[in-house]
Write a structure and sequence with these properties.
This protein is an alpha+beta fold. It contains three helices and seven strands, in the order ββββαββαβα. The strands form two sheets. It has a four-stranded antiparallel sheet, with no helix packed on it. It holds the Pfam family DUF3305.
Length: about 160
């Protein structure tokens, strides 16, 4: 049985008080860091000056799967590979937000967006890009292109 390649990440979320006149709170994914066990296991607040706050959420697992190889390929060939972070806000307390998952698959991020989830992206560091490229090179095989005959060359009953 083959082991699923994975790594651990920590997500840094920034919260801004009243970023505009229509919102009480604004959030953005500030960074995604490799988590090598130095950040602990529990989320924590790093700073809060009343206007800007930063929260670190460690321990998110990013796994690579063969059936997502096309999504990894699309991420890598986009020109600027990224982490995709799906995050949520609390309905009970709109000042709270947290990351639910981190992925490297363009297709998976698209499915999450289609499901009306919040997905932001952050640039991927060179070492993770190289790791993802090696996996994609080993597991992604593009489907062969098939020439489609123009309808005008088909028999009328087959159009």
């Amino acid at each position: 049985m083959e082991r699923t390649p994975s790594l651990h990440a920590a997500v840094l979320i920034e919260r801004r008080r009243q970023p505009n006149r229509w919102e009480a709170w604004g959030f953005r994914i500030a960074d995604v860091l490799l988590d090598e066990g130095l950040f602990g296991e529990a989320p924590r607040q790093l700073r809060d000056d009343g206007h800007l706050a930063q929260f670190l959420f460690p321990g998110l697992t990013v796994s690579l799967h063969r059936d997502e190889a096309e999504g990894y390929y699309l991420n890598l060939t986009s020109g600027a590979p990224v982490w995709f972070v799906m995050w949520r806000c609390s309905d009970a307390d709109p000042s709270q937000a947290w990351p639910e998952m981190v992925t490297l698959s363009y297709n998976e991020a698209g499915r999450l967006l289609d499901a009306q989830e919040r997905v932001d992206n952050v640039p991927l560091p060179a070492d993770v890009t190289a790791w993802l490229q090696a996996y994609t090179d080993a597991h992604y095989r593009p489907e062969p292109k098939q020439r489609r005959r123009p309808a005008s060359f088909r028999a009328p009953e087959r159009r």
